[in-house]
Amino acid sequence: MTGLKRVLHIRSINDMPMTLDQILEEAQRLPPDQVAELVDRLSVTLHSSEDPSMEDVWKQETRRRLAEIESGRVSGIPGEEVSARVRKIVGR
């Protein structure tokens, strides 16, 4: 079972919607290629009204960023730190 399906499967077992923090926690357990696929899918969903030719551009950008992280040229920011920054910005 792929990681993306595993996340959905966990939701159906619990029979309760997952919180954003739970989704993030599950996504952090996925291998990098599945994270890239998830980002691609979310990007397509969020930007579906945009020019369809942009899909390839977004995929290339996602893969470029993932390659930068995997090569060590840039480092990721832990999800909890990102969440804390967002909460501070939005005042929660």
Provide a concise account of the structure shown.
The protein is an all-alpha fold and 92 residues long. Helix 3 (32-46) runs antiparallel to helix 4. Helices cover 72% and strands 0% of the residues.
How do the strands and helices of this protein lay out in sequence?
Blueprint: H1 3-14, H2 20-28, H3 32-46, H4 54-71, H5 79-90
Task: Please tell me about this protein's structure.
With 92 residues, the chain is mainly alpha-helical. The chain has one domain (3-90). 72% of the residues lie in helices and 0% in strands. The chain has helices at 3-14, 20-28, 32-46, 54-71, 79-90. The longest helix is centred in the C-terminal third of the chain and has 18 residues, at 54-71. The chain starts with a helix and ends with a helix.
Number of domains: 1
Biggest sheet layout: none
State the low-pLDDT regions, or none. Answer: none
Mean pLDDT: 80
Q: Count of DSSP helices?
A: 5
The coarse overall form would be globular
Assembly status = single chain
Strand fraction equals under 5%
